[in-house]
Specification:
2,3-Dihydroxybiphenyl 1,2-Dioxygenase, domain 1; four-stranded mixed sheet
């Protein structure tokens, strides 16, 4: 059965993307391969994750305009945690800015944050089934 291995997030520069995902979110740098001509193959993921993020440096005005707008202004990235309070505190201490206070919904505990590129994320701990 196929699985989602990667999805890409547009960034203005590779190193800025790496810095945010590694330093602020605690992800692991899985690969950073020079492809020549200024292009790199950069994969990051939370420790133990099956799906990774490919950091794609925007190339040209159309892609540059799409940085932070891949979700059309909606939350489109969901980062699941098994301990909301721990990770919310850790992210805040590392400079992640949340748009709202944590809230409790029928599906779990959640708070929205933006990455430095404008993408909206949910940090979410799902409610027990």
């Amino acid at each position: 059965m196929p699985r989602i291995a990667l999805f890409s997030v547009l960034v203005p520069e590779y190193d800025a993307g790496i810095a945010f995902f590694i330093d602020a979110l605690g992800f692991t740098l899985l690969e950073d391969t020079d492809m020549g001509g200024g292009k790199r193959w950069v994969r990051v993921a939370p420790p133990g994750a099956e799906t990774a993020i490919l950091l794609a440096r925007a190339d040209g005005p159309r892609q540059e305009a799409a940085i932070g707008e891949q979700g059309g202004g909606r939350v489109w990235l969901f980062l699941e945690t098994d301990n909301f309070a721990r990770d919310h505190a850790a992210f805040t201490a590392r400079g992640v800015t949340f748009e709202e206070a944590p809230r409790h919904e029928p599906y779990g505990t959640v708070a929205v944050f933006r990455d430095p590129f404008g993408n909206r994320w949910d940090l979410i701990q799902f409610a027990p089934a």
